[in-house]
Design brief:
The chain has helices at residues 139-149, 162-173, 178-183, 218-232, 252-262, 275-278, 281-299, 329-342, 359-364, 369-388, 399-403, 409-416, 449-458, 488-493, 503-507, 512-528, 534-537; strands at 7-8, 16-19, 28-31, 34-37, 47-49, 58-61, 64-69, 78-79, 84-86, 112-117, 123-124, 128-133, 204-207, 237-244, 270-274, 305-308, 313-318, 346-349, 425-430, 439-444, 463-468, 481-485, 500-501. It has 552 residues and is α/β, with parallel strands linked by helices. A 7-stranded parallel beta sheet has the order 19-20-18-17-21-22-23, sandwiched between helices. A 4-stranded antiparallel beta sheet has the order 1-2-5-8, with no helix packed on it. It has a 4-stranded parallel beta sheet with strand order 13-12-14-15, with helices on both faces. Helix 5 links the parallel strand 14 (237-244) and strand 15. Helix 4 packs across helix 5. The radius of gyration is 25 Å and the shape is globular. The two termini are 38 Å apart.
Length: 552
């Protein structure tokens, strides 16, 4: 790798450079007519100073304030948690900045995907039945239904490790020592595939357990019912079985009201069964199985038909982010987002703690002042609530983030926001509101990737694009989650969970535009049902509702 591909200045305003590979202490850096030596070893993904800093001097990346020096830093010095702290600029209601350079969409004009058309006009990229408890008391009954239905109807496909356990048992029975067992080479077990699907047009039955519905605040129950209503009315969902105990806060009437908000003419097959009214567990479950089977038979009549790409609603997510996230996978995803928005589709950018420091840019991009005010109010309120509990947005970066170069929340945020591309913000939503406008939607959620992904899908995302630098297996029960690596190392190390490599951008073999177009091509294949992302293959059905307290 030549020196010009050894480091990167992301924005002309930046006063730090990003190492694209490991750089040794004493290495000479030639940059814009100046020459200086690195005073420290700088690992790939980390940053070093272009000029010397004094305490409280401002650090800029992506053209925005991301931190301030806490001590003297020499030119060529490593930027770390030891010498800078989080800082971000204040924001205010500014002028609208709605001009943007729309990408070339000629490669995608007239393209369609084969989806499941719903009565409300939405189109699903999959066709699932969901079984949902209104309260955690019903989780066991949900599990019993899962055991009864999944294998018999041909949906069991997770890899089994039973053969590995049998090998260990055989070694033990043969008198092998503990050390010999630990050193044994394990033969991979065969992947269990279910029987042939009984209902050919149903992609699966998904069981969404949770620990909410009672014992919390009324706001928690209302939000839970809103989220569950989002899943029931979701374009990838054919119908639902809902189990209620009866006495909990989260009542069936609240759920039905939330469904009506999202789809006033709701007509999907759905049944709500209340255990305390029905009596015995057997009576409840037998009725639930009959109603579910009947609903599946009805939903199986729906088949894939062509739909324009404007019917796609993409969730934009990241998790296990690293110092390359903001310069490879995230901007490539942003380019794909801009293409889709240009064609009338919708994208959702969430994780509000990871928008800290870019509030001014995003609020200025809002289509009107009311939308901008709502975004700023949600950001201020959320951060204030977090600080009351001793952890403002500054506490968002995880150990893994910091270790791999995201040393302040503003650095993390400035890179994370690139997933949203450059288009105007058409709507700002509070959790768990539903997307109703095409274009770029901002959704208030935590930065926690599972809670955020859960929320994006509840708001209508029929596919989620998820970037990762460190590797994370996060998935969702009803929406395909496509994983994009920020670097080739993690793509090669964890090929069982990652679908697309964007490390090509770091290596200089592909442009952001080329990667963005490649991403969208894969999205179309997934939307068609031609490709199954690794998260779907692994049945990575993560579902965590946001309990509306403080979660970063």
């Amino acid at each position: 790798m030549t020196q010009e591909h050894s480091f990167l200045r992301i924005h002309p305003k930046d006063n730090v450079l990003v190492a694209l590979r490991d750089l040794e202490q004493g290495a000479t850096i030639e940059f814009e007519g100046q020459s200086f030596d690195l005073t420290d070893r700088v690992a790939a993904k980390h940053k070093f100073a272009i000029n010397a800093f004094k305490p409280e001097d401002s650090i800029f990346m992506y053209g925005v304030l991301v931190g301030k020096a806490t001590k003297d830093i020499q030119k060529g010095g490593l930027i770390s948690t030891e010498n800078i702290h989080h800082a971000s600029s204040e924001f205010h209601l500014g002028k609208r900045k709605l001009d943007w350079h729309q990408p070339d969409t000629s490669k995608f004009e007239g393209r369609t995907f084969m989806g499941y058309h719903r009565a409300d006009g939405s189109v699903g990229t999959a066709n699932y039945w969901v079984v949902i408890p209104l309260v955690f008391c019903e989780n066991r009954n949900i599990q019993v239904m899962k055991e009864a239905l999944v294998d018999k109807l041909g949906y069991k496909k997770a890899k089994s490790y039973e053969s590995e356990v049998e090998q260990l048992m055989s070694l033990y029975q043969a008198g092998k020592s503990t050390q010999e067992i630990l050193n044994a080479d394990m033969l991979a077990g065969a992947e269990k595939s279910g029987n042939k699907r009984f209902f050919k047009n149903i992609d699966g039955i998904k069981f969404l357990t949770h620990d909410l519905g009672c014992g919390g605040t009324q706001q928690d129950s209302q939000a839970l019912c809103g989220l569950l209503a989002g899943y029931i009315t979701h374009p990838n969902v054919a119908g639902a079985t809902v189990l209620s105990l009866g006495c909990q806060h989260a009542q069936g009437s609240i759920l039905q009201a939330e469904i009506a908000k999202r789809d006033p003419s709701f007509s999907k097959p759905m049944v709500i069964l209340e255990q305390q009214k029905m009596g015995t567990e057997r009576k409840l479950l037998q009725e639930a199985l009959k109603q579910t089977f009947a609903g599946l038979a009805e939903a199986n009549q729906n088949e894939r038909k062509p739909a324009p790409l404007s019917k796609l609603c993409i969730g934009l997510e990241c998790g296990g982010s690293d110092g390359f996230s903001g310069i490879s996978a995230n901007p490539a995803l942003g380019y794909a987002s801009d293409i889709l928005v240009s064609m009338g589709g919708s994208v959702i950018l969430s994780e509000f703690p990871e928008l800290c420091g870019v509030e001014q840019e995003l609020s200025d991009r809002c289509v009107d002042e009311d939308t901008a005010k709502r975004f700023m109010d949600l950001m201020v309120t959320y951060n204030a609530r977090a600080e009351q509990h001793g952890s403002g947005f500054y506490a968002n970066p995880s150990f893994g983030n910091i270790k791999d170069g995201l040393i302040t929340d503003a650095i993390k945020s400035a890179g994370a926001a690139k997933k949203g591309g450059t288009s105007p913000v058409t709507a700002v939503l509070d959790y768990p509101e539903k997307v109703s406008k095409s274009g770029l939607n901002l959704l208030c959620t935590p930065g926690s990737d599972v809670e955020s992904t859960t929320a994006e899908v509840g708001s209508g995302a029929n596919i989620v694009l998820f970037t990762t630098g460190l590797g994370t297996p996060t998935g969702n029960p009803v929406a395909p989650v496509i994983k994009l690596s920020t670097n080739t190392v993690i793509y090669n190390r964890m090929p069982d969970i990652i679908d697309i490599n964007c490390g090509t951008i770091i290596e200089g073999t592909e442009t952001i535009k080329q990667a963005g177009e490649r991403i969208l091509e894969y999205v179309i294949k997934v939307a068609n049902g031609e490709e199954q992302p690794k998260s779907v293959q692994l049945e990575q059905d993560d579902f965590i509702p946001w309990k509306r307290g403080v979660s970063l």
